[in-house]
Amino acid sequence: MEKVLLVTGGSRGIGAATSLLAAQRGWAVAVNYASNSLAADEVVRDIRAAGGSAMAVQAHVEDEAQVLAMFDKITAKLGPITGLVNNAGVVDMTARLDEMSVARWRRMLEINVIGSLLCAREAVRRMSTKHGGAGGSIVNLSSAASRLGAPGQYLDYAVSKGAIDTLTIGLAKEVAAEGIRVNAVRPGLIDTEIHASGGLPDRVRELAHQVPIQRGGSAEEVAQAIVWLLSDEASYTTMSFLDVSGGR
Question: Could you confirm whether 157 is annotated as catalytic?
Fold first, then answer.
């Protein structure tokens, strides 16, 4: 049976790197995107040019109807899903808690937490042996921020990633006997476009001195950890957290 992987937020950064590496390792990849179809299509083209199988699929992960439609499209085109990377997420502008709005929190939690819950639920419904599935693997994207708290910058983002840690622990225990492994990767200071969307395009360079390894990481380095956790090489690994943070 072909290995079919959904990578949410797969059109750029860690998601794109994961999509490309997973395809090299034999996965058929569904590259989810929210709005940037050109970027998603480029990832799909690169995968196909290298001989892999891929499709781009649009959905806002916090929207239940869109998520259900996305899973149906993937199943119809690539086959039953056996892997999920819950990567879609957002940050916001640097701020203290006492400067943040409820609207900002709602957006953050809807995308980062409800989006991950929704996609995990639909993956379990399709992968669990309890539901007639063949099993599979889920990798959630947490963050070193869940340990560090991101004070003065992204406290609400850190809160959302703390929720991802809890999701990983609880769901791993819930479905371990049903053929599904659930793990998380916690990236640290990684050089991707997400920092610019938070108003700090030079954040990695400016904070690199705080990392014991003395540099920021790359999306490809995070992708290596994700794809290992997805693979049969990690067959006895569940409820685990792999920090890819340079010692930070």
Answer: yes
Sign of torsion over alpha carbons 129, 118, 163, 199: positive
DSSP 111: I
Instruction: For residue 57, give the amino acid letter.
Output: V
Whose tokens are 């929210």? That residue is 34
Q: How crowded is residue 127: how many other Cβ atoms within 10 Å of its Cβ?
A: 25
Domains of the chain are: 3-244 (3.40.50.720)
Q: How far apart are CA 89 and CA 205, in angstroms?
A: 22
Burial grade of 157 (CB within 10 A; 0-12, 13-18, 19 or more):
buried
Per-residue model confidence as pLDDT tens digits over 79-129: 999 999 999 999 999 999 999 999 999 999 999 999 999 999 999 999 999
Q: What is the pLDDT of residues 121-153, one digit of tens each?
A: 999 999 999 999 999 999 999 999 999 999 999
Catalytic, out of 33, 154, 157, 236? 157
Measured CA to CA, the distance from residue 52 to residue 226 in angstroms comes to 18
Query: What's the rounded mean pLDDT across residues 46-62?
Result: 98
